[in-house]
Amino acid sequence: MKYILSILFAVVLSLQAKALPLDEPTPFEKFYKKQMKVTPGLFTVYQDGSNYFLEIPASTLNTDLLVIGDIARGFANNIAQSSGVIRFGVGNGNVLNVTKEVYKEETSADFNQGFEELVQKSNLTPVSYVIPVVARGKDKKSYIIELTHELIEGGNLFSFKDFSDLSSSDPARSGVQEVKTSGEGVVFSVLRTQTVPGNSVNGSKAVDKAVAFVLNLGLQRLPVSKMKVRESDPRIGFATVAYNDFGKYPYGMRNVKVITKWNLSVRPADQQKYNAGVLVTPAKAITVYIDKNTPALFLPYVKQGIAQWNAAFEKAGFKEVLVLAKGENENWLSAGKIQIKWGGGASDVPVNLLSDPRTGEIYTAKMNISDQVVNDLLPSYFTKCSMKDPRVLKDLYNPEVRGEIMRWKVAQAMGEVLGMVPNLHGSAAYTSAQLRSGNWLKQHSFSSSVTDDTQFNFLVQPEDDVAVTDLMPRVSAYDELAIGWAYRVFADRNAEKKSLASLKPSNAALMFLEENKSDPFTRRGDVSSDHLEAAELAMNNLMRYYPQVEKVSAEMKGGDDDWRKFKLLSSAYQKNFQLYTDNVASYIGGISLRPVLRNYNEVPVVYTTKKDQKKAMALLNNWFFSGVPSWMQNKRMNLENNESEDTKMQNSMQDLLRKLISPEVLNNLITAEHEMGNQAYTSLDLFEDLDRYVFKDFDSVNPLNEHTKLMQSKFIFDLADATVKNNFAAGLSDSSEVIHFYFVRTIKHIKELSEQHQDPKAKALYQMLREKVEKGMNQKKS
Q1: How far apart are CA 332 and CA 329, in angstroms?
Q2: Residue 140 region, left (φ>0) first, then alpha (ψ -120 to 50), else beta?
Q3: pLDDT on residue 114
Q4: DSSP for 329-364?
Q5: Which residues span the membrane (predicted)?
Q6: 340, 350 in Cβ contact below 8 A?
Q7: Angle at 303 between CA 297 and CA 308, to 5 degrees
Q8: Residues 532-570: pLDDT tens digits?
Q9: Rounded distance, CA 126 to CA 421, Å?
Q10: What's the pLDDT at 484?
Q11: Do 636 and 566 form a contact (C-beta atoms < 8 A)?
């Protein structure tokens, strides 16, 4: 059926093409004019005034071409959505058909060799769009097409229609600035300008805005030979492409995932040395262009971040894989190149990749860096590491520290450029004791992967003998393992499998885990295999240094007369407090999913222990449920902000308590109980802890402070709301059953307190809560 529909679709397109009122292509002799400017190359360009024409040689028809639209200058980092692998083919009605490869089926050589021809014949790639042919080439075999509209306004070939600032270019204010050719391609440098409608804010007059971008729009022929694919392995985290392979099983089909990576190969002359374990340079290195506008301060650190990965490539048997380009020749985005562009103002380091949908081969990549990324991270670095790094105590914007942060961010982004996905387990690989050891950190770093999203080693104590260079992540053990496996050229599939045979789940440093919001050990911002101990150490630092922030900020270089640095650092300390408590709270209902493979691991799920969850609740009581810690109270911050510390704490606590009674957490606790019995931390254990810490064991004697009143009031309403959302009428589930049980039990206790509490104010509060909850429940039921 799919085959029939594909044929019908192609027929419709063919009929549409035939219906176009196209003239016969002009002979070259009539097309060519003496005043035309000719840029010769594989794809020769003819310029006639403001019109541009491209010659498509017959040798490039039905071959893979890489089309790229890249923002070279301008406040954005987008790559054209139309970028990717295309093919030109001769269509009906004097047009060239343009097809984009959609790769869903394949036949490998393992079994069913006869299927390969059948699969190829049964697949039909639909035509994506057509381009009219305006003339034939001088040799009468090539085809000349006009690109003026495609270049200036954007059509199908170089389309930025998903980016509003480039969706409707004005031809009167746009134009081609330069045409450049290389051995296998051509690139146009194009200015596109348009006016973006303004938005009215609070009734003010909308003001339109003119925007301009310089684009590099290129077309390049790709090599005929394809990269040998590497099937994905759940123990190593790489981005993947998937297809159905009819050659993996006799008379069957299997869905196959192959990893995305660059095509590194060994020269035949080096094969013997490579097999003997001698490092060799790849047949084709990856060229890295660093933007010439990169400030001199950051340039050496950017190079160092790249160089860290060259060391990792040695595990794959290669040296000098990433080669820094000299000069600006051919610095546009094209196959075999990485561009590191300066500017864009993004709060992180965005990466764009173009890869082959059939093999996963990465053709080219772009990374955008700016000082905005560094400056945004400086307050976080100060609050986590200033006790060990006096440089930022004196100057928040210390040049060396800024450079070191840039080095880390470039190294982190390079992991994505090389095809990897973040291994968020990397920061949970080592113990707290190891992460406080200077010798350990010097050898291993504090995360086993630089791709993890954890920023800095925040559990180091002032008395620990740790160098400041070890407070930031770097390429480490897991990264080397991943690159070694993905990029090594193995003799055969068996050798590839043997390379990972020694991996064991007990080696946490080499473990990859997919991100899972229920897994405490794939959190963004955690450190150490024991989040509870890490949080206690981090809170010690917070308690010691947060009260000093007003004094420290005033003594910094440049002073702080307007309290700007004080507010910036105080806000960062508060975010850290939230981070540490969130890390602790992640233990409640925590489950960790592990890859299951024969001779590797047979335990698919690891549950957080009852002991750890009980301790987590006790810590949350100390830092949250018992009120704002005295050392978090900052009079100056309360004066400078519209929101007090108490209000912020109440809002954070409300979010936490909502999470603890969410269906996700409750279902995880119920599942753990089914698997572990009385060894598990159960939903009943959670409810007992909530009774103890939130409702103070429903004590009917002691009066309530303001913090406890607000906490209990917000929680009882959230509990009622969660119960309604998990109503039996919406379908029976384990979480709806336990939340309903807890709500009924809690309301019973509230009723008792409304009648028996010895403190008149507390008694009145519980009466009010009872009446409001009952009234609200009745309204929601009706």
Answers
A1: 8
A2: left
A3: 52
A4: TT-SS-TTEEEEEE----SS--EEEEE-TTT-BEEE
A5: none
A6: no
A7: 135
A8: 999 999 999 999 999 999 999 999 999 988 889 999 999
A9: 32
A10: 98
A11: yes
Contacts 24+ apart (CB under 8 A), 687-690: 687/742, 687/745, 689/614, 689/617, 690/657, 690/660, 690/715
Whole-number Å distance between alpha carbons of 575 and 619:
18
pTM of structure: 0.90
> Which letter does DSSP use for residue 135 in this model?
E
The angle formed by the CA atoms of residues 108, 112 and 117, to the nearest 5 degrees, is: 75
Dist. CA 45–CA 522, nearest whole Å = 52
Nearest to 334 by CA among 385, 375, 286: 286
Ranges of beta strands (E only) in 9-152 are 37-39, 45-48, 51-56, 65-73, 84-90, 95-100, 105-106, 129-136, 143-146
Looking at the chain, how many residues does it have? Answer: 782
Q: How far apart are CA 77 and CA 768, in angstroms?
A: 55
Nearby residues of 238 by Cβ (< 8 Å), 6 or more positions away: 232, 259, 260, 261, 419, 420, 421, 482, 486
Bridge-partner residues for 240, per DSSP?
Answer: 259
Q: Residues 6 or more apart from 192 whose CB is under 8 A from it? A: 152, 153, 154, 166, 169, 174, 212, 213, 215
**Please, which pLDDT band fits residue 4 given cuts at 50, 70 and 90?**
very low
Q: What is the pLDDT of residues 620-664, one digit of tens each?
A: 999 989 988 888 877 777 666 666 777 888 889 999 999 999 999
Both tokens assigned to 558 = 């440049």
**Interatomic CA distance for residues 363 and 154, integer angstroms:** 23
Q: Model confidence at 347, in pLDDT bands (50, 70, 90)?
A: confident
pLDDT above 60: residue 126 = yes
What is the average pLDDT across 198-219? Answer: 82
Q: Which of 163-177, 325-339, 738-752 has the highest mean pLDDT?
A: 738-752
Residues 14, 93: Cα–Cα separation, whole Å? 9
Per residue in 575-606, pLDDT (tens digit) is 999 999 999 999 999 999 999 999 999 999 99
**Closest CA relative to residue 668, chosen from 608, 727, 615, 596:** 608
Question: Residue 33, class by beta-carbon neighbours within 10 Å (0-12 exposed, 13-18 middle, 19+ buried)?
Answer: exposed
Return the exposure string of 361-374: e unless at least 16 CB atoms fall within 10 Å of the residue's CB, then b: bbbbbbbbbbbebb
- Residue 465 contacts by C-beta under 8 Å, 6 or more apart in sequence? 438
Q: How far apart are CA 674 and CA 680, in angstroms?
A: 9
Minimum mean pLDDT among 22-31, 135-144, 267-276, 711-720: which range?
22-31
Beta carbons of 128 and 41 less than 8 angstroms apart: no
Kindly state the tokens that stand for 312.
Answer: 């990792």
Which candidate, 42, 71, 72, places its Cα nearest to that of 58? 42
**What is the Cα–Cα distance from 580 to 61, expressed in whole angstroms?**
59
More confident residue, 329 or 485: 485
Burial of 723 (0-12, 13-18, 19+ CB in 10 A): buried
pLDDT at 629: 87
Provide the token pair at 49.
Answer: 């005034």
Evaluate whether 424 touches 524 at the Cβ level (below 8 Å): yes
Query: From CA 144, how far away is CA 159, in angstroms rounded?
Result: 21
**How many whole angstroms from its chain centre is CA 428?**
19
Pairing of strands 209-221, 185-196: antiparallel
Question: What is the chain's mean pLDDT, rounded?
Answer: 89
- The strand pairing partners of 605, in sequence order, are 593
CA distance 303 to 743: 59
One-character DSSP codes across 281-311: --SSPEEEEEPTTS-TTTHHHHHHHHHHHHH
Give CA–CA dist 562/554, Å, rounded: 10
Q: Are strands 185-196 and 175-182 parallel, antiparallel or unpaired?
A: antiparallel
pLDDT in tens, 61-112: 999 999 999 998 888 888 998 999 999 999 998 999 999 876 565 555 444 4
Residue position matching structure tokens 């050891």? 437
